[in-house]
UniProtKB/TrEMBL annotation:
Residue ranges occupied by any DUF220 domain in the UniProt entry: 75-120
Cited InterPro entries: DUF220 (IPR003863), START-like_dom_sf (IPR023393)
Protein name in the entry: DUF220 domain-containing protein
UniProt feature, compositional bias: Low complexity: 119-130
Pfam families (alphabetical): DUF220
Region (Disordered): 116-135
Organism whose genome encodes this protein: Riccia fluitans
Length: 199
């Protein structure tokens, strides 16, 4: 279920955790794809992207995006340049501001973990199973967690500050909903391709 919470008057901190029907490798590919603005509707345009470091697993990238926001009947755009550190072996991404503009603080992280078919059932010990059963668990998807902290350069007075928090929370929900939708599309596509007989 989506989670959103406010930590301080000047900062808006929120999070969203969801199950996604793709393995971690595939989810990581979606999140780190340079052309993922076709997936995430809140990204209007990528105006700058440069790979600063790349050792095969870990990448450090500088990215500037023009983002969309919508809250209730209001909408607009904002530019944001961030440093993004991503690691495939850890299935993680961390980002923070490279340059202040409309935002004084904009940082967050993605964490992807495998989900197995028996996670919600009884424990192995209760079922009389040993630790060797860990290797036989079936991978059925991923748990995806997105955390973010936002602080505008100009702090609006109350009640407009609540409006800013509402925008931040809505963006988190929209991003994770877009990810789920793309995962379902790819899973259906994969299932369809596997259903065709091999000649």
């Amino acid at each position: 279920m989506p989670l959103s919470r406010v930590m301080r008057d000047t900062d808006s901190q929120g999070g969203d955790s969801r199950r996604v029907c793709l393995p971690p490798d595939d989810v990581y590919d979606i999140i780190t794809d340079p052309n993922n603005r076709r997936v995430f509707k809140n990204v209007k345009e990528v105006t700058y992207r440069k790979v600063l470091e790349d050792d095969g697993d870990r990448q450090l990238v500088e990215v500037e995006q023009l983002g969309r926001w919508k809250f209730l009947v209001f909408s607009g755009t904002f530019a944001c340049r961030v440093f993004v550190e991503q690691s495939r072996t850890e299935f993680s991404m961390h980002y923070h501001l490279a340059r202040q503009g409309m935002m004084k603080k904009f940082q967050g992280s993605w964490k992807i973990e495998p989900k197995y078919d028996n996670e919600s059932g009884s424990s192995s010990s209760e079922n009389g199973e040993n630790s060797d059963s860990e290797n036989s668990k079936k991978l059925i998807g991923s748990w995806v967690n997105l955390q973010q902290i936002v602080q505008p350069a100009l702090i609006p007075p109350w009640p407009l500050s609540n409006y800013v928090r509402g925008i931040s929370a809505q963006i988190l929900k929209d991003v994770c909903a877009d990810l789920q939708q793309e995962a379902m599309r790819l899973a259906a596509q994969k299932a369809k391709s596997m259903s065709f007989p091999v000649s």
